[in-house]
Amino acid sequence: MSAAEDLLAFQLKAVGIPFEREVVFAAPRKWRADFVLSRCKDWPCTTAHHQPFLIEIDGGAFVAGRHGRGAGIRSDLEKLNRATELGYRVLRFLPENIEDGSALAQIERCLS
To answer: What is the pTM of this model?
Structure first.
């Protein structure tokens, strides 16, 4: 887990947004989401009209990391398209979005 993921977990806890980390969301592929959260006050959410959010933090995007190369981009597209197909709303952020608070602000807007 990255420093950005730890920081987002801290931010989410501070404002009372329930979440789970490193959630396998698409068996049998064993794809993991950095975070899964919901509008529900109860966690895990079982209410059908509360579409859960899958949060991904894309580290290494500017240093030829996994998220910035062809094979990694292809894999991310497949993973996130499958998440959408399964009913998740997907939000992707860079570590700088966590650090400057813009990710948390957008998450809060989406959940309101």
So the answer is: 0.81
